[in-house]
Specification:
228 residues
Length: 228
């Protein structure tokens, strides 16, 4: 058998087969990527719809309370509703309530402002803790991205809650990996506050450090630490 015959019988068919396999894998990769993008788009739409529906209910109850004459003296339910709203609506409800109570006689407006601001802060905590919980689920990529954005907006609060997440779920792979990805993705680096730095260092003893992805994410987060 000469070289040409060998090529016709073995080399060319094998090459065609390999090209076919490669094309199949490329097609599968593209399909998987498209499916992932479609799913994440649907997930975001679902979350948006859920939050909008919930906020409408919160606002409906809020405006019902404003119709009561003693709403500025008896305000626990108002603060609860502010704390349950999504942060952007919580801020609006806080401002509306303060404005509504400002001209009222016998009202300590400074106390109302302080309590309303605390309620707004509770709304932010609720959102962040919800995103941290999502690090374990199918929406973890979206949760990581959102937490990274929020970290830049309110580094102190997000940093405290991320530290608590490490402490509470130290052995949980998805939660702690998600925290590391967030810290490694913060533009300009993250501030190693006492609590966050302490919990971060403890991750070096995590059983998850045996995992290559986890170890790499830890290294990236460590390099992204300010003054590192």
């Amino acid at each position: 058998m000469n070289a040409k015959e060998f090529a016709n019988i073995f080399v060319i068919p094998v090459t065609i087969c390999l090209i076919g396999i490669w094309a199949t894998f490329k097609t599968t990769d593209t399909q998987n990527k498209n499916a992932k993008e479609i799913y994440e788009g649907q997930y975001l739409q679902s979350e948006k719809h859920h939050k909008e529906s919930f906020d409408r209910e919160v606002m409906s109850q809020f405006f019902e309370l404003l119709e009561h004459s003693n709403v500025c003296q008896s305000s626990k339910k108002v603060y609860f509703l502010i704390g349950q709203a999504t942060p952007i609506h919580a801020a609006k409800l806080k401002d509306l309530y303060i404005e509504h109570c400002t001209p009222k006689d016998g009202v300590n407006i400074e106390n109302i402002k302080l309590s309303a601001e605390n309620a707004e802060n509770n709304a932010q905590i609720k959102e962040i803790n919800g995103l941290i919980a999502d690090l374990k689920g199918s929406g973890r990529r979206i949760a990581r991205s959102r937490l990274t954005s929020l970290f830049k907006e309110n580094e102190k609060l997000v940093g405290e809650l991320l530290a608590s997440a490490i402490k509470d779920d130290f052995s949980d792979y998805k939660t702690t990996l998600g925290v590391l990805v967030v810290l490694g993705s913060v533009e300009g680096g993250w501030e190693p506050t006492k609590e966050l730095q302490s919990q971060f260092e403890l991750l070096q003893n995590s059983p998850n450090m045996k995992d290559k992805t986890f170890k790499k994410s830890f290294s990236i987060a460590e390099k992204n630490k300010k003054n590192s």
